[in-house]
Amino acid sequence: MLHTLIQSLQDFTMWLVDSLGHWGIFLGMLIESVCIPLPSEVIMLFGGFMAEAGKLNFWLVVFAGIAGNLVGSLIAYYIGKFGGRALVLKFGKYIFLNVKHLDKAELWFGRYGARAVFFGRVLPVIRTFISLPAGIAKMNVWKFVIYTILGCIPWNIFLTWLGYSLGSNWSVVEKYTRPISYLMLALVIAIVVYLAYKVWNKRARNAK
């Protein structure tokens, strides 16, 4: 089942890029940066392959990826900023978070926020969710934007170049990144199942 879901996500990603071109890359990277587990490796690698095939422009692929990352990250940032503390206080127990965790996140980002956002952009899984705690910690938005862009540039250029260099063999790299996609999707499924169980359990208690 998990393999089928991952394959469906990858097929959707490739269809998005193939159908919408540079806009598909922008949309795909935006979706991934809003904390939805769409595999960015597939998006940029396939974009690089499409550039090598002459169907897309190499630098527009890179730019679309960075722009999508930035817009999606800002959406996640503001979700964390304006709904963060209230979200933790009301629903935190359902996703294993509490006020102490939030206080630590705010302190951590207060000290290391810029570096955390920058290096988090090149770390699998972490780059998908790094914007939420940045928003919760109310990191300066302009600093967040700058370090998000700086962190996205090398990652997107590297993946696009790799897809361009490998050409039709780009999917070889995707096979090595697939375990990361499995981990991300498994995490999301676990959270959804846990939340559904908690809601069902609460309703069952109230019914009594």
TrEMBL record:
Principal location class: membrane
Record keywords, A-Z: Cell membrane, Membrane, Transmembrane, Transmembrane helix
GO cellular component, one term: plasma membrane
Cellular localisation: Cell membrane
Keyword Transmembrane tagged: yes
Spans through the membrane: 20-46, 58-79, 144-164, 180-200
Span of domain VTT: 38-164
Signal peptide: none
The keyword Transmembrane is assigned to this record: yes
UniProt membrane topology term: Multi-pass membrane protein
Sequence similarity: Belongs to the DedA family.
PANTHER family attached to this UniProt entry: ALKALINE PHOSPHATASE LIKE PROTEIN (PTHR42709), UNDECAPRENYL PHOSPHATE TRANSPORTER A (PTHR42709:SF6)
The protein's name: Alkaline phosphatase
Lineage of source species: Bacteria, Bacillati, Bacillota, Bacilli, Bacillales
